[in-house]
Design goal:
Helix 4 links the parallel strand 4 and strand 5. The strands form two sheets. The chain has a six-stranded parallel beta sheet, sandwiched between helices. The longest helix has 15 residues. The chain is built from eight helices and ten strands. It is an alpha/beta fold. It has two domains: 143 residues, NAD(P)-binding Rossmann-like Domain (Rossmann fold, 3-Layer(aba) Sandwich); 107 residues, Dihydrodipicolinate Reductase, domain 2 (2-Layer Sandwich), CATH 3.30.360.10.
């Protein structure tokens, strides 16, 4: 009988979208983690190409130059002794091709960008399975949000009306967010119908009711600092007190979850 060895080598991580709001915090968290090592930083700004990502972000030299050559970086990553993880924090318009490229090079994808369609997710899942490669799609890295989702599932047994309301910074590209959509999907999978109309409803502005089932509303404001935001989930029923779960999502909490996911994904092929 042979015993499989457990590797203790740090997991190589590439961050795509390294100079964005989330990317900056992810770089800082990964650089501080003992079980991960940053090996690549992808960004589009031509003025930053070739510069050390740590120095650009004010974290000190990390000896990782910024590049926009995705193929070259993935090819380099595929030659690492440990299979790398690519953390993609880019944009819905490019995420699909980014992830396909990572899978093609045998790199574990961790998707932190929302906006992929169900068809795109299904295609990426099929491609990853054919490549015998694991990956993770994480609409939200904050542990508090995961707890709120689970609390909503438990509480929904007692309520017939559910609304998800979220506030974002004014650079949020998709609405509602992937987090809100995932929460609504989780509630929808319970087999219970929410928000049955009491009257003949008419929307004078499309989407004003927040969609079918568990409704989701997203607003933006320039006063929201960086990528911090708040999500609220309201549950209501006639004759019962309204329940409200509020989740402040901070940079520290999100990046702690981000590091945990990246470290776990690096082992998902074991």
């Amino acid at each position: 009988m042979t015993t499989a060895s457990i590797t203790t080598a740090p997991i190589p991580v590439i961050v795509n979208g390294a100079t964005g709001k989330m990317g900056r915090e992810a770089i800082k968290a990964i650089a501080a983690a003992e079980d991960m090592v940053l090996i690549g930083a992808l960004a589009r700004n031509p003025a930053l190409l070739g510069q050390d990502i740590g120095e650009v972000l004010g974290y000190g030299a990390l000896e990782v130059p910024i590049t926009n050559d995705k193929e070259a970086l993935f090819a380099m990553g595929s030659q690492q002794p440990e299979v790398p993880v690519v953390l993609d924090l880019t944009h819905p318009a490019v995420i699909y091709e980014n992830v396909r490229a990572a899978i093609a090079y045998g790199i574990f994808p961790v998707i932190g960008t929302t906006g992929l369609s169900p068809d795109q997710l299904a295609e990426l899942d099929a491609f990853a399975q054919k490549s015998s490669l694991g990956g993770l799609v994480i609409p939200n890295f904050a542990i508090g949000m995961v707890l709120m989702q689970q609390a909503a599932i438990q509480a929904s047994r007692f309520y017939d009306h559910v609304e998800i309301i979220e506030l974002h910074h004014d650079q949020k590209a998709d609405a509602p967010s992937g987090t809100a959509i995932k929460t609504a999907q989780m509630l929808g999978e319970l087999g219970k119908t929410f928000n049955l109309p009491k009257v003949q409803e008419t929307e004078t502005l499309a989407g004003a009711r927040g969609g079918d089932g568990a409704r989701a509303f997203a607003s933006t404001a320039s006063g929201c600092r960086g990528w911090w935001l708040t999500s609220k989930l309201f549950l209501a029923n006639r004759g019962k007190p309204t329940a409200c779960a509020t989740t402040p999502r901070t940079g520290v909490a999100i990046c702690q979850g981000c590091c945990s996911v990246c470290a776990g994904c690096g082992k998902c092929g074991d």
